[in-house]
Amino acid sequence: MTTSLSTTPVFQTIKDYLLREIQKGTWKEGDAIPSEAALAQQFNVSRMTVNRAVRELTTEQILNRIQGSGTYVAQQKYQATLVAIKSIAEEIRSRGHEHRSELHELVEVEANEQLAQQFQVQPGHALFHSVIVHFENDIAIQVEDRWVNSILAQDYLTQDFATKTPNEYLMAVAPLQGVDYSIEAVIPPKTIADMLQISSKESCLVLHRKTRSQNQIATIVTMWHPGNRYQFTGSF
Amino acid sequence: MTTSLSTTPVFQTIKDYLLREIQKGTWKEGDAIPSEAALAQQFNVSRMTVNRAVRELTTEQILNRIQGSGTYVAQQKYQATLVAIKSIAEEIRSRGHEHRSELHELVEVEANEQLAQQFQVQPGHALFHSVIVHFENDIAIQVEDRWVNSILAQDYLTQDFATKTPNEYLMAVAPLQGVDYSIEAVIPPKTIADMLQISSKESCLVLHRKTRSQNQIATIVTMWHPGNRYQFTGSF
DNA sequence: TAGTGGTCTAGACCACAGC
DNA sequence: CTGTGGTCTAGACCACTAT
Predict the structure, then answer these.
(1) Is B1 a member of any domain?
(2) Interface touch B183/A205, C-beta < 8 Å
(3) Residue A236: what pLDDT?
(4) What is the residue range of B140's domain?
(5) Which residues pair with B212 in a beta bridge?
(6) From the CB of residue A188, how many other CB atoms can be counted at a distance below 10 Å?
(7) pLDDT for B167
């Protein structure tokens, strides 16, 4: 067998294929996917290559493997965690309050070194950048500083974020594959403090979130909240 | 080469070896570990087997690999997982760091009006109260202010929390039924700031958590962390 | 250029599940 | 028993880094 000519490794191609088919519904939760031998034949590669693809999807909890039996699509987990990817607008409305947002920036930019690394793309790759302030009953409650991969959301710039938040739009165009987040307490830079109408000595509760879709980084967002009037909650 | 006779796979043996050496300090953060070829020779196995061990440690963020250069011990991050109700001691040890705790208070009290309401018991109900400061490599990283329902943990007062944290003890005696939590950024009261050895102007990342067991409120805990050196992370 | 990791092969033997 | 996954080999070629 000659080595793949494209730059993407074969095992990655197979992972993508399996993910796509699962998303398409070809195999539903609990269904068995083809055996390693079958996939090896289908892709005309060695079994070890298929094994790596399937093994990695197993550690990513996409699949379950049972020795002697087969490989199955895993159950989607209930994640009622704090970062339920809920739109802030929806959250505010569910409290019976009025939601309003102000668009402070909406531009296309070329990824610099650092952003390129975070998005796992080449420097110069097109990204969208938006900064939106969300108000609950006219009180600033969140600054949403968002970077979006242009490939996954081509018409991001033409959206009307007053009627549909970036979150709501992105959920529609880029099916969510995974999320990483971290939460910290930080003293905000002055620009953020001003937008939140707080002193730059008050600390903020900051949520960083990176979402994956179609095996790419879809969006990286930093949400700044006034520490004294916001908290994350959850239960399980 | 014959297959290993022991039941543990060779790649796992190599992972264990590498983790042990890192923990021992043989290679510190940023140091290069031996090359794949060297490890293959050392363990008398094929390079692919070593590759799997090292690759998995890389996805687990224990190592960094740079093609053409080498494999290096990754930077340990101050991070906690939210979703797992993990003992802070265990978390610190899993980073290869030393955990130490100081007991500041351990008493039995009668629930006042407010506590009684939170615990859903009658005022006067017996509760235990403990305040413990946790250190990671002698740096204060958490103040754990805990209230415990005496019914579910009768011998709470006689525990040695230096060897077993309250969390570990409670997990053993009171099977977890459910959890509610909230996270906020707060300026700490002076007593807390002093225990964390920070200025009372620096904000804290605070996790409130209420756990249920046997259909009662088992424990209500407030954990204070220095905002500038602690964050919660997670992914799904 | 020599050394490193990144990937892949075409076999192999084993343990386990299900018929 | 057959078919599945679990592991391992002894090579190979490639891309990249450091010198």
Answers:
(1) no
(2) yes
(3) 56
(4) 80-233
(5) B178, B217
(6) 23
(7) 79
Tokens (6 digits) for B51: 């590759």
Arithmetic mean of pLDDT, B85-113: 84
Same domain, yes or no, for A183 and A102? yes
CATH code of the domain in which A51 resides: 1.10.10.10
The answer to whether A183 contacts chain B (CB < 8 Å) is: yes
Position A81 scores a pLDDT of: 44
Tens digit of each residue's pLDDT (9 = 90 or more) over B192-221: 999 999 887 888 888 888 888 777 889 999
Q: Is-above-0.70 flag for pTM? A: no
Amino acid A161: pLDDT: 83
Does one domain contain both A113 and A216? yes
Structure tokens at B106: 């351990």
The single-letter code of the amino acid at A216 is Q
Does A4 map to a domain?
Answer: no
Q: How many CB atoms lie within 10 A of CB B14?
A: 23
* Residues A142, A215 share a domain: yes
* pLDDT reported for residue A235: 56
Count of domains for chain A: 2
In the block, residue with structure tokens 């709501």: A168
* Rounded distance between C-alpha atoms, residue B27 and residue B42, angstroms: 17
Question: What pLDDT score was predicted for residue B228?
Answer: 74
B68 and B105 in a single domain? The answer is: no
Give the model's confidence band at A47: pLDDT under 50 very low, under 70 low, under 90 confident, else very high: very high
* Residue A167 in domain: yes
Supply the CATH number for residue A139's domain: 3.40.1410.10
Long-range pairs of B205-208 with CB within 8 A, sequence gap ≥ 24? B205/A183, B205/A184, B205/A185, B205/A205, B205/B230, B205/B231, B205/B232, B207/B82, B207/B181, B207/B182, B207/B183, B207/B232, B208/B181, B208/B182, B208/B183, B208/B184
B188 interaction partners in chain A (CB closer than 8 Å): none
Spacing of A211 CA from C3 C1' in Å: 37
Q: Which residue is listed with tokens 């298929």?
A: A50
Q: Which of B180, B184, B236 sits opposite A205 (nearest CB)?
A: B184
